[in-house]
Design a protein that fits this description.
alpha/beta, seven-stranded mixed sheet
């Protein structure tokens, strides 16, 4: 290997480590997973967490990041030892964090790395996280969103409620779970608008509740939803054999010759199970779509609808809901679509459900945890 190649490899590996920190800070789980080889591993024995493969790394990042109030990671250059198409190295980092349950602290840590040259450039084959110093003293600072409409933090106790609602929510707050009080307000507003609404602890509870709400043998269409995928609900419905799952039937149809059949199957199922991009404190649901194919069933084509909604999707009003779609959900879905399909996503269709005119048709399962986009 000549000196120029070695220099180029070192620059690319250093850029890979910087990309990792940026993906973590931006909570971009698809991009984070794409930095690893398909069988790459992220190991954090001190937590403890061990994630192997891109899907586990992506889903594990979702679970970890859903617990954050705020998180700051600064990475400093370390060693790189090249050996042909592989390399080893270390990176040094400082982190500040506070979780939603109040745990907080400062730490200094080391990533022990193995790198692999691939057709897509250098990737992590393994990252092993080792904490070298931990200080759990209370942090004096706070996340900016805590004082600007999230319902938490010192400013929330004294601010005028109208001022809190009218202040535009910063993009960072779109990932923070709503408080118990806000979830109760949303549930009450949804019920007043004709929806059934339940507050559940987490995705596992929602997964069990679906079996009560959707009878065995029912025809069920699932939306293209990260919430359903991460919770296991998508797998339960589409591969579990309990239901007449419509999405596998659609996938088996030739799109060139069976477009009308696909359209009819998607438009009027007995049940649609989906998530939403946002739910407002005034009791409205907002769904976004690139093709629009799943929207008719949600709008009223399905006889029954169930929406599973993570706590981070609560927003004050419709204007903030549309901001959440553009500033938070779309970038995350865009990254996922590029990684999975090799093409970007887009918000070509929007559906706003302000009320349910058919009592008993629509049920919203509000979760206390953050999940999905």
């Amino acid at each position: 290997m000549n000196d120029f190649q070695a220099i180029a490899d070192r620059v690319e590996i250093e850029a890979l480590r910087g990309e990792f920190t940026d993906a973590v800070m931006m909570r971009d789980r698809p991009r984070l997973a794409s930095l690893f080889t398909p069988d790459g591993a992220l190991r954090m024995p001190d937590i403890p967490v061990e994630l192997v493969g891109r899907e586990e790394i992506r889903a594990g990042g979702e679970r970890l990041q859903s617990q954050w109030d705020f998180f700051v990671q600064t990475t400093h250059p370390g060693t790189i030892l090249l050996d042909g198409d592989t390399a080893t190295g270390r990176a040094y980092l400082q982190e500040l964090a506070r979780t939603l349950d109040g745990r907080q602290g400062l730490n200094y840590a080391v990533y022990h790395d193995r790198y692999q040259r691939t057709g897509e450039g250098w990737k992590f084959a393994e990252r092993v996280y080792e904490v070298r110093y931990l200080d759990t003293s209370p942090l004096a600072g706070t996340a900016p969103h805590a004082a600007r409409g999230s319902g938490t933090g010192p400013a929330a106790a004294t601010a005028d409620p109208e001022d809190v609602t009218d202040t535009p929510a910063p993009a960072a707050s779109f990932a923070a779970p709503a408080s118990a009080e806000r979830l109760e307000r949303v549930a009450a507003a949804l019920r007043a608008n004709g929806f059934a609404a339940e507050i559940l602890d987490d995705a596992a509870e929602a997964r069990a509740r679906i079996k009560d709400l959707v009878p065995e043998g029912a025809g069920v269409l699932t939306g293209a939803s990260e919430t359903l995928r991460l919770s296991g609900i998508d797998e339960d419905i589409n591969t579990g054999g309990r239901y007449d799952a419509i999405r596998p039937r659609i996938r088996a149809i030739d799109r060139a010759t069976g477009a009308d059949e696909i359209r009819r199957l998607a438009a009027g199922p007995e049940f649609v199970v989906n998530s939403v991009a946002a739910v407002t404190e005034t009791g409205s649901l907002v769904l976004a779509s690139g093709s629009g194919s799943q929207l008719p069933a949600n709008a009223g084509g399905a006889a029954h609808a169930v929406w599973i909604v993570g706590a981070q999707k609560v927003v004050p009003d419709l204007s903030t809901a549309l901001r959440r779609v553009e500033e938070h959900a779309l970038p995350m879905e865009n990254a996922r679509a590029r990684a999975v399909y090799g093409m970007p996503s887009a918000v070509n269709r929007l559906l706003i459900l302000n009320a349910e005119p058919r009592p008993g048709r629509g049920t919203v399962l509000l979760l206390r945890e953050a999940i999905g986009h």
